[in-house]
């Protein structure tokens, strides 16, 4: 049984090799990143702005409505 555990541990690279492999994989993934074009960036920015504006209107309306409801109930 001890031989199986020992054999399993010998296949695993040491901690420094694993850290080095992780850093290499991170840089490989970073190289794949592509910056958006100006048109894409503008489109996404407008989408985010509209979504945030919608949420602001929704929360403001909800706050105002619940405030009026509380004032109506507790007067």
Automatic annotation (TrEMBL):
GO biological process terms held by the UniProt record: intracellular protein transmembrane transport; protein secretion; protein targeting; protein transport by the Sec complex
GO terms under cellular component: plasma membrane
Major site of localization recorded for this protein: membrane
GO molecular function list: protein transmembrane transporter activity
Annotated keywords: Cell membrane, Membrane, Protein transport, Translocation, Transmembrane, Transmembrane helix, Transport
Localization of this protein: Cell membrane; Membrane
A matching Pfam family: SecE
Topology in the lipid bilayer: Single-pass membrane protein
Residue intervals passing through the bilayer: 41-62
InterPro entries with a match to the protein in the record: SecE_bac, SecE_sf, Translocase_SecE/Sec61-g
PANTHER family on file: PROTEIN TRANSLOCASE SUBUNIT SECE
Family indicated by similarity: Belongs to the SecE/SEC61-gamma family.
Function field: Essential subunit of the Sec protein translocation channel SecYEG. Clamps together the 2 halves of SecY. May contact the channel plug during translocation.
Subunit structure: Component of the Sec protein translocase complex. Heterotrimer consisting of SecY, SecE and SecG subunits. The heterotrimers can form oligomers, although 1 heterotrimer is thought to be able to translocate proteins. Interacts with the ribosome. Interacts with SecDF, and other proteins may be involved. Interacts with SecA.
Identification of the protein by name: Protein translocase subunit SecE
Species this protein is from: Bombiscardovia coagulans
